Amino acid sequence: MDDTDDFTSPQSLPAWTALTAHARRLADQPLSAFFANDPGRANRFSLVLENPTELDKTALIADFSKQRIDDKTIADLIRLAREAQLEEGIQRFFDGEALNFTEKRAASHMAMRGGCPPPSNSRMDTRAMRTFAFDLREGLLTGSTGGTIRHLINLGIGGSDLGPRLAVEALADPRGNIVGGIELARVDFVANVDPRELDTVLARADAATALFVISSKSFNTPETLANAEVARQWLTSQLGEGIDVSAHFAAVSNAFEAAVAFGVRPDRVFPLPDWVGGRFSVWSAIGLPLLVTIGGMFDDFLVGGRIMDDHFRLTPLEQNLPVWLGLTGLWNSSFLGIQSVAALPYAHGLRSFPSWLQQLEMESNGKQTLRDGSRTETDTAPIVWGGAGTIGQHAFHQLLYQGTRRVALDFIVPAGESNNSRQRILVDNAIAQAAALMVGRDFDAARAVLANRGLPAAEIERLAPHLICEGNQPSTTIMFPLLDAFHLGALLALYEHKVFVQGWIWGINSFDQYGVELGKEIARALASGETGEQDPSTAQLVRLSEEFRQQIR
Ligand code: F6P
Questions:
Q1: How far apart, in whole angstroms, are the C-alpha atoms of residue 325 and residue 432?
Q2: Is the pTM of this model over 0.90?
Q3: Which of 111, 146, 186, 263 is 20 to 30 Å from 490 by CA-CA measure?
């Protein structure tokens, strides 16, 4: 396949020109005006994912009606998708074509959840990993001194950390991993090479019952390998010099030899196919900590993802959730000039969702070189950030209300149990924030607020400008019944496919990450002392860091 043969830059498509003109027409209209003239808008601009496993039940709804869109915007965005041959792209994606064209391989992570076949001639056997996870969960694994393994410590970074960390936080029983009165393995994550993170976990760990999973697709990531080395030294120091500590290690990696060379037993190196990218890997053996945490419910997680795959593959663009999520995001980024997206999950269990999404979107689509090697003429991935509601309301929402920047917002809202009053407060807040950030408060409303407080007229005039909130922050609200394994799977797959839609239309490769190599190279050179030519600032920082280290010796 030569992807440059059929590549047309998105700006040269007729729909792009139409959207550029239309964006100018819509840019200054207040969002609430879209509703004033169009009462059916909320319903028309909401898409639903039915739950095929429980008929009559809605799995998930996405309400796009608070976006700066009208019927023409959606029609033109869908026209753009068709002109960019998105439908063919989706087909080729699910057929396992080598759409990761720089690295010449498929991106078939959907195969890990049954959403597509694995690429031809490839193996995808997770049985050994599953048996291992269930043995660990059920207390059937022992350490080198005979103690039952009760503590899994995942050593990994990026995609080898963020996905499983998010999923475990979302789905672990808050009372602990207890089944039938028996405490199953505790799970911790260590990503940072800052000693403090691993030290904190080790301080509460018992070497006799701890197991380290070295999660690294490449088995070549310095932070992870440095932590793994410290873990090995710690085990030896705790269990006794000369003792074989291999019973305390497993690895998830595509680099079998390197893992074995480190000292992981061959039957404990669980493979991760090269067609599963790190940031798409939670469905694979990288999900081992999740499997240990939720056992059989891991399959519900996979089913949730698979249902989103089927929806994405089979649903016309006009009704297709990931397509709309991708297109409205692209509209904000490429046509309305919105530089930033805040992910606002209203669920403590989803507090790491913004970090997971950051890697997914920014590492996938934070690129500027197009399929034909030319440079993009439009902005690509926005800056993704965010945090859990309602925490953010008491911190950064001020900027969303009265700052100078337009920020697109994704509210992620599990509705939760109906008889839980605090859960209701949470959900009411999510709904209220989406409304308030759209409607805002004008000068008259600000004066009315102050008048209600009984302030004198002069004080009202003085303070009113400070109460004005422009509103007009566009948002999408994604709501689903419950934060369980099934809905989490559907949510994560929804965003994965959003990234595909955008990358495809922008014409970039969403599946490589060459950019991150540059900083790694310089860090490697610093570590080895072979710094070569350095700019004066870098040289100064190297010298100062050494001086500071000397001070605390
Ligand atoms: O440096 C970026 C990156 O390669 C990510 O793409 C990846 O998820 C992370 O590092 C960890 O990589 P590995 O699983 O190979 O250790």
A1: 21
A2: yes
A3: 186
